[in-house]
Amino acid sequence: MTRRWRGGGLAGPLDGAPPRAFWRIALAAVLLVGGLLSLGEGPVSRAASRPQLRALLVGGGPDRESNQVGIESNVRYVARVLPSGAKRTILFADGNPREATVQFDPQGLETSRAGYAAGEEAYSLIFAVQEETGEGALAYRAPKLPSLDGPAQKPTIARAFDALGRDLAASRQPVLLYFTGHGSQGDDDSVHFDLWGNSTPLSVRDLAADLARIPAQVPVALVMVQCFSGGFANLLFEGGNPEGALVDRDLAGYFAATAERMSSGCTPSLDEADYQDFTSYFFAALSGRDRVGRKVSGVDYNHDGRVGMDEAFAYVLVSDEDIDVPTCTSDGFLRRFVPGVDEEVFRAGFPQTLSWATPAQAAALQGLSRKLNLTADDRLSAAYTEFRGMGSTRGRARRSQLATTRERLRRKYQAQMEAEFPALRDPSSQGYADARKRAIRRLDSLANSGALADLLQAEEDLQQAREQPQYTLRQTRILRLLRLAKSVILAHRLESAGDQTLLTRYHRLRVAEERSLL
Question: Which single residue of 118, 120, 148, 209 has CA 20 to 30 Å from 502?
């Protein structure tokens, strides 16, 4: 039976690094080699000789009602901050630049389904929309993206990877793979990236096969911000199997949420100044400007004149004020190969842990400590005790499972209603209003006869689960602190273990994660 690391608890993948001594030696070696190489380059600058970035941006929900403007904004923002001259491919929603597929809230107000009749409530639930008329209505428009190269579906994604493989056959031109949208969990705890048209979602195994089309020597940065995205850290292993052998490729991945947690960012709000999500903080740190042009500084924690992806990740850990608990590929590596029981790991003193951290990790450990008002040397043990008293992460996992079940049933009944009333597929069609009325009458009779019992029960179960105590921002920050600290400690143990083959592979991964993407 395949064993999977679990992203929601402390035993999940964490961010780790070698001690400072190694990085001083490594940096000196890099500078020496770089200086020797530059002797043969003549007057050509490093900026001029640096390979141009290639980017594949994939975004959109599985359907129009789940394709919020926040997702489109993510694609547009990342496309905007790419280096000048970067070649990009954008796959978004249905791929049609003129189709009104982007959902937004023109007034920024929320409406409630309270007071609906059984049929109206079922219709609202099944089609995942609020009333089309009246205050707080959600609206739809065509995408506002710089270009659109096709839909976010498996065939076009596979073709995009084929093109990358052909173009980079004899190249080390770096690649950015960015995914933004919705994620789901399978019945076997596997994770997926949901694709347009409610088609078969993209699994970790699917993306592993796509990645295999890119030459192994090509540096690949993978950024995924959907719910449960941390499960894709298993791309470090053959076939995406968490028990498989390590792949021999230059891959570094950053993810908005661990494999059992949901992430923020799928909002219909048009006000980008208020966005609180992984994309906003990560790419603001890398580019030096946030979504609305405000300057972001102080992220060059090792003072080498650039911002690496590891530094941007540390910035997210401290700055993000939403539910995100991000993770990265080195987290998955450490959890796979270095043993460590939480109770024992967190007995380490904070000053000692800090001494083992990279500059970026040290900045995050200290920044989170300040925000949590933790100052004692035994703060990790104290934070772990507080975290355990907050309740089990099983509550979060149960909510995720219930949400997945509800979504599966919603899509099933949506397909049935659209088959019976085809005009429902196009709210702008002439027959939509009449079809909606007839569908509500039909659903009302079904609901009253018990035919929709599974869907309505799933919705009730989910609402009850959501009424249970949720993680507060403090709880989320404690989890980020503990996960990061555990990674630092496990990385130190790896350094001390003496397995040179494993250690060399880990150092290679860390170098990839510290690359300056933009």
Answer: 209
